[in-house]
Amino acid sequence: MATTYLSKTLSTATSNGIIGTFSFWVKLCGIRTDGNDYMLFSSYADGNNRMHIKIDGSNTLDINSRIGGAVHLSKITNRKFRDTSAWYSIIVAIDTSQGTAADRCKVYINGVQETSFATDTNPSQNQKIHALENSKVHYWGSYGGAPTNSAYALDGLMSHINFIDGTQAAPTVFGSTDSVTGEWKISTSPSVTYGNNGYFILKDGNSVTDQSGNSNNFTVGNGTLTNTEDCPSNVFATLN
Fold first, then answer.
1. Strand 60-67 with 70-80, pairing
2. What is the per-residue pLDDT across 111-144, written as a single tens digit (0 to 9) for each?
3. Which of 58, 88, 110, 178 has its CA 20 to 30 A from that of 79?
4. Tell me, what's the pLDDT at 142?
5. Which pLDDT value is given to residue 207?
6. Reduced 3-state DSSP string for 50-91
7. How far apart are CA 197 and CA 3, in angstroms?
8. What is the predicted pLDDT for the residue at 1?
9. What whole-number distance in Å separates Cα of residue 134 and Cα of residue 15?
10. CA distance between the termini of the chain
11. What residues have CB less than 8 Å from 150, skipping those under 6 apart?
12. In sequence order, which residues have a C-beta less than 8 Å from that of residue 182 and are 6 or more positions away?
């Protein structure tokens, strides 16, 4: 996506800031070697009130939310994301009303729940998460605090971006395991209730028109989106 990014200011949240699911596919075209981050998703009001999902400078997945300067959610995987030949399915499913702390933010990679974290801070019960609150701006492919800064720009492709407002969805909503190959395969038309702020973009090619029925269409910033034939259901070989 280079320094091109997508953004949308949302309205009143279904979940009042405590329940929601992010599901998307990403293919990395390069591996970060400069210590900076590949920002996948961010929501930003200021330095003390923000959320991000990123591949950090160590090539690990980093999920973080803070409100009023306090970090309420922080998960950094031990797993490294360095495969530039395949698409990753990433799902972050949040419900802070859950009684068990570990159930309040579940992370799935290619349909399998991630359980090995170098940092694993779960939100307290009923804690609000910045990006799930009312009237937040959602950014894809950039850091909301500096959306055109190349230090945070994603060198990669994104597809089938879903945000479910008000539901902690299971991975089987968005894909299934092939019974022959064991490969995680995409469900291109998930059956979900999206909630007030939910959306589904980049479903077919480079369209930022919301396919959820909510008309939460995104705006392309700093350039144009390039449509590629390489997608989660039609993976092209990549020269290493």
1. antiparallel
2. 999 999 999 999 999 999 999 999 999 999 999 9
3. 178
4. 92
5. 94
6. EEEEEECCCCEEEEEEEECCEEEEEEEEEEECCCCCCCEEEE
7. 25
8. 47
9. 9
10. 19
11. 3
12. none
- 19-30: string of b/e by CB count within 10 Å (b at 16+)? bbbbbbbbbbee
Q: One-letter amino acid identity for 130?
A: H
Consecutive H or E run containing 19: strand 19-28
- CA distance readout (Å), 143 to 104, 126, 137, 148: 24, 26, 11, 8
Distances (CA, A) of 182 to 2, 189, 232: 32, 21, 15
Single-letter amino acid code for the residue at 88: Y
pLDDT in tens, 176-219: 999 999 999 999 999 999 999 999 999 978 899 999 999 999 99
CB 92 within 8 A of CB 73: no
Query: In this predicted structure, what is the pLDDT of residue 190?
Result: 95
Q: What is the pTM of this model?
A: 0.95
Residue-averaged pLDDT of the chain: 93
